[in-house]
Write a sequence for this structure.
C-alpha cells in the first residue's frame, strides 16, 4: 500500500510539473483575420521557427492551434486559430518584405502608352498596320478622315472589329481655327456620320488637323473630346523607318500619346520595331480613351 501511495505521489508530481511547464511555455499570441500580433515576450518570426517549424521538448505535443485572446487553456479562450493561418500571414509578410528590399530597377514598373494613327484609312497601309498590331496583340486609336472612311469603309470596319478605337479627324483635314463655327461643325458632323455608318458607333474624341485648336474651336465643338499628342515621330516628314524609331526612343514616356500616320508605307514598315522597343522597355499599350 505504501508503495502505491509513493508511485501515485510521484505521478502527481510529474503531472504538476508538466502542467506548469505547459502553462508558462505556451506562446501568448492573438490571431484574427490572418493578422498576428504579439506581446513583448513573443516575437513571431522566431516563434514560427521554434514553435511551429522545429518544435522541441514538451511543445511537440501541442495541438496545431494558437489560441485567440492569448494564453493556454483556462484563460477564457473561446476560439482557436489554425497554425496554417499564421504561416500564411508570415509567408505573405516575407514576400512583401523581399519586394520592398528589391532595387528600384527590379521592381515592376507599370508604364502606359497609346499608339495613334492619323489621316487614314488607306487601303493597303492601314491593312498592314492592322496585321502588325494583331501580331503583337496591341490596341491603337485611329483618327480617321471622313472622306477616306467613305472610300474604304471595310478597312474601318476591320479596325473596329479588331478592337481598335475609331476617332474623328474631321471630314477633309481643314484647319479648324480658320473656319467659322458652322464650317467647323460640318467637318466634325460629316466625319461622325461616315464613321457611324461604317462601325455603328459614334466617336467620342476628335483630333484637330495640324493640332490647331483655340477657344473658338473648343466652344463650337463641345460635345466631343479634343485629343492631341505628346510624342511626335514626324513620320510624315522624313518618311524613314529608322528616324521614326529614333524619334520615338528620344520621346517615349509614361502616359505618352504617339503620333503616327497610316497613309505612308514607311510608317507601316516602322511599326514593328516601334512596338518591340516599347515592349522591351516595359510599356503597356492602351487606347487613347483608356489613357485619358
Amino acid at each position: 500500500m505504501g508503495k502505491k501511495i509513493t508511485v501515485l505521489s510521484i505521478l502527481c508530481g510529474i503531472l504538476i510539473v508538466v502542467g506548469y511547464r505547459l502553462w508558462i511555455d505556451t506562446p501568448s499570441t492573438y490571431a484574427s483575420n490572418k493578422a498576428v500580433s504579439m506581446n513583448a515576450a513573443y516575437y513571431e518570426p522566431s516563434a514560427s521557427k521554434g514553435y511551429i517549424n522545429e518544435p522541441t521538448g514538451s511543445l511537440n505535443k501541442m495541438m496545431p492551434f494558437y489560441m485567440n485572446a492569448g494564453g493556454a487553456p483556462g484563460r477564457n479562450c473561446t476560439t482557436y486559430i489554425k497554425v496554417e493561418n499564421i504561416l500564411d500571414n508570415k509567408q505573405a509578410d516575407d514576400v512583401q518584405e523581399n519586394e520592398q528590399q528589391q532595387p528600384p530597377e527590379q521592381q515592376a514598373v507599370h508604364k502606359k502608352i497609346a499608339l495613334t494613327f492619323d489621316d487614314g484609312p488607306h487601303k493597303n497601309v492601314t491593312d498592314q498596320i492592322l496585321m502588325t498590331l494583331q501580331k503583337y496583340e496591341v490596341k491603337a486609336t485611329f483618327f480617321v478622315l471622313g472622306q477616306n472612311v467613305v472610300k474604304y469603309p471595310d478597312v474601318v470596319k476591320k479596325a473596329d472589329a479588331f478592337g481598335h478605337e475609331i476617332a474623328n479627324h474631321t471630314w477633309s483635314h481643314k484647319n479648324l481655327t480658320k473656319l467659322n463655327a458652322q464650317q467647323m461643325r460640318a467637318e466634325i458632323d460629316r466625319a461622325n456620320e461616315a464613321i457611324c455608318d461604317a462601325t455603328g458607333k459614334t466617336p467620342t474624341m476628335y483630333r484637330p488637323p495640324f493640332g490647331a485648336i483655340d477657344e473658338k474651336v473648343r466652344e463650337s465643338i463641345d460635345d466631343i473630346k479634343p485629343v492631341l499628342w505628346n510624342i511626335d515621330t514626324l513620320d510624315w516628314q522624313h518618311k524613314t523607318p529608322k528616324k521614326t524609331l529614333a524619334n520615338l526612343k528620344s520621346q517615349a514616356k509614361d502616359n505618352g500619346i504617339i503620333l503616327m500616320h497610316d497613309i505612308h508605307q514607311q510608317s507601316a514598315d516602322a511599326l514593328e520595331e516601334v512596338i518591340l522597343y516599347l515592349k522591351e522597355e516595359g510599356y503597356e499599350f492602351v487606347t487613347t480613351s483608356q489613357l485619358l
Remarks:
- Residues 26-91 have pLDDT under 50 and may be disordered.
